[in-house]
Design the sequence.
């Protein structure tokens, strides 16, 4: 689907627990993908990808995914690629067209009957006859 040369990876030091290892090893991954200029990404998919990516995409159409969930660089790398693939997969499925429909005659009648029934219940609420006063 995506060519390897379209992805740019940068390794950074990950925040969080990990002891001395955190200060020495750059395990977190920043994955960049230029979606706007990608020859393998159709325009329609790109346009659906923009709202799905949200704040992960900048004005130039570059998606930046930071993965630091795992302590190993390789697993973070794999995680970032899977997240990018998931975003593109979601954008690749076109939205379902909703065929507008109208309620049938029987459905309209049922609705009106239930409204009349409810109206009658409310109308009879709190009424007292003359014999109840006293």
Sequence:
């Amino acid at each position: 689907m995506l060519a390897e040369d379209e992805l740019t990876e940068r390794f950074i030091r990950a925040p969080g627990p990990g002891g001395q290892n955190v200060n020495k090893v750059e395990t977190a991954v920043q994955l960049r993908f230029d979606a706007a200029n990608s020859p393998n990404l159709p325009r329609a998919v790109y346009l659906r990808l923009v709202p799905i990516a949200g704040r992960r995409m900048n004005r130039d159409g570059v998606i930046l995914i930071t993965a630091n969930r795992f302590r190993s660089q390789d697993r973070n790398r794999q995680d970032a690629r899977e997240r990018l693939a998931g975003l593109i997969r979601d954008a690749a499925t076109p939205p379902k067209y909703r065929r507008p429909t109208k309620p049938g005659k029987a459905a309209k009648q049922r609705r009106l009957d239930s409204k009349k029934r409810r109206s009658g219940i409310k109308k009879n609420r709190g009424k007292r006859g003359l014999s109840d006063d006293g």
